[in-house]
Amino acid sequence: MRRRDFLVQGAAAAACLTLLGQDGARMDAYAAVLENSAGDGPDWQRFLARQDPIWERLPRNWWEAPFLGNGMLGTTIRQDGAKSMRWDIDRCDVQEHRPVSDGGALWARTRLPIGYFSLVTVGTIVSGTMRLDLWNAEATGEIVTDRGSIKFRSFVHSGDMVILTAVSRSGGEGEACFEWHALEAICPRVQFHPLPAGYQANPPFTLAHSGEVQTCHQSLVHGGETTVAWNEASSGASTTLFVSVAHTYPSAGSDAIAIDAVNQARKQDLDAFAASHRAWWHQFYPASFLSIPDPYWESFYWIQMYKMASATREDRALIDNQGPWLQPTPWPGAWWNLNVQLTYWPMGPANHPELSESLTRHLEDNVTNLIANVPQPYASDSAAISTASGQDLRSVAGLPGTGGEVANLTWALQNAWEHYRLTLDDKRLRSFLYPLLQRSVNYSLHFLQPDEQGVLHMPNTYSPEYGAGPDCTYTLALLRWGLHTLIKCSVRLGVDETLRQSWRVTLANLAPYPTDDTGYLIARGVPLAHGHRHFSHLLQVFPLHIVHAGQVGAAELVEKTVDHWQSMGERLGYSFTGASLMSSAFGRGNSSLDYLNGLKHFLQANTLYKEAGPVIETPLSAARAIQEMLIQSWASGEEMDGLIRIFPAVPDSWADAAFSDMRAEGAFLISAVRKNGVTEFVRVKSLEGAPCRICPALQAPVSASGALNGILTEASDGVFSLPLKKGEEVVLYTRGNRPSTSRPPVCSNGGGANIWGLKATAN
């Protein structure tokens, strides 16, 4: 080793000792009891400390393990043998680039495993503890063997593509060391399904050195390459492991990118490196706040906030079924008939539209591929996406009339529409969302067939996870929503009046949703006759809000359908979150919480969710279910400006609740406090000066302070119009009870803390 490298590595290892030493004092501070804050909101470090998952024993599976990520790189940490701890190494864009004709997108654009590091101990592991520090996005822990102990800290740097793990060995563990294990670059689906005929394997990986950096290079048979680079900086009993992963396509150069990332990281002062990582997270959390008097769901909610920021960033990966934490799975990619859409649901309301930008940007950047997905005769005006794709959204779309799944892109664009309504970026509406939505809707319009009365019917299409039939409710609901939204867009942009009229004619003649005495059907002539976890026949209720509480008979029809659906068995995770969200849409808070509580039987120790493999969407949709109990903002039909509803579906057991700076449609930031079942105040800030209608759930008479100078216009019973200009805000409250603060407090949770993780005895 050259003297300079020795000095650099020695300094890094010394800094590693400093970092590990600081952790003990900070973890002692976590034991302090968190009291309600007043005036300026929570002490974020202390508030999030009560949400931290804690492991009193070591996890042995990915669904038990602490997880770390930066929107591209990810790792999970768990015991992997009597003398081994494992750090998985994953990167979201490491995928195949085979032609989609080569086995379809399930094989052609599949995610690929990379490998993992083992920390091999000298003695046999006898116990251990870990903590996932949400505030600093770091995992810390101690591994105890029959020969000594090892303390560790890991984080995936928030900005740099580097995973850092620092260890300090004591007793007889002085020779404990890291070992790299490369995994075969083959679709994880192979463990569940046979390879397609003619499948050509990728070449084997190669190992090399570049100075003090080691590399593992993996070329792919149809182009693209992946490099893992790492360096161990050791001094005495301490080691710091720097790891980076780079993936390039179609060009080469992944070696240089990964090596440079490692070298840049190891040159830095580690205190400064850790501080720059933490700084991103410390500005992330305070964008919004939510507190409820239920320690289980409050902690769960904040772990989901951590999870979604670990899984994506504005300029990073589309979240597929696994996010950054790939494991053996039959679903190694992005699934578009529910999974992607549910994954992105909580981001906008939590005032993190920058995270949902990763979905919007992937749709925008891959329009050419979305067009290429449809059969050539329709490419001039249509676009679509099939069930699954990789990061480039390339797939082979189904064909109406053949039982194909044709409306998935429209559902994804409903997410993009919500992103637009939360930000009001009209330039983007004009350049991207409106024209792509036209193409998505056009694909269905091509196949509508009139009957003798002029009613327009959809031939056989597929209802996800159930079956196909004519006038499929899934397809009709998304087509209706798409037509209504195209009309809204054209009015907003002042364009396409002729098209607007044709869309209205189509809506007026479109076949109704098929129903029977059990409620909504899967399709015409296709009742729900057996268990069905998907709510594909209920999208018109949520998230589309085409069917809503303001319509005569809607509540009874929806309740009947949901009861029948839930009675059929085979309910899994998102069966419960879907039912919860539909209950909230109709103001049934107790039912909403009851359904949400049904999810508890499926959630794992780290809040990840598993079936045959990890699937990320269900816990994140549960975070949206919590949000929808406290605040809703949506418009139905051709209305542009929705009604903001405060505490619309709070269960009786949540007498107290508080949130601040939750984002509502129309680009408003909303804060509110509820105590002893009574709303104390609601604060509204307009970001773009859009019209605001709000139902604040305040006892009359209602007063206002701030921009409106006490002047309020009650548009209807309990609904107020607020003529706020851009940047203005107002506080609403019951006259005579003006609040002393506009910052929501932390709710008492009965002393419950650190619900998640693994306890000393089995959960």
Helical element count?
Answer: 17
Strand order of the largest sheet: 1-6-7-8-9-14-13-12-11
Mean pLDDT: 92
Count of DSSP E strands?
Answer: 33
CATH architecture of the largest domain: Alpha/alpha barrel
Which range best describes the helical content: under 10%, 10-25%, 25-40%, 40-55%, 55-70% or over 70%?
Answer: 25-40%
Tell me the strand percentage band.
Answer: 15-25%
Q: What is the domain total for the residues? A: 3
SS class: alpha+beta
Query: Which CATH C-level class of the largest domain is it?
Result: Mainly Alpha
Distance separating the two termini:
48 Å
Gyration radius over CA: 27 Å
CATH fold descriptor of the largest domain: Glycosyltransferase
Biggest pleated sheet? 9 strands, antiparallel
User: Which stretches are low in confidence, meaning pLDDT under 50 for 5 or more residues running?
Assistant: 1-19, 22-39
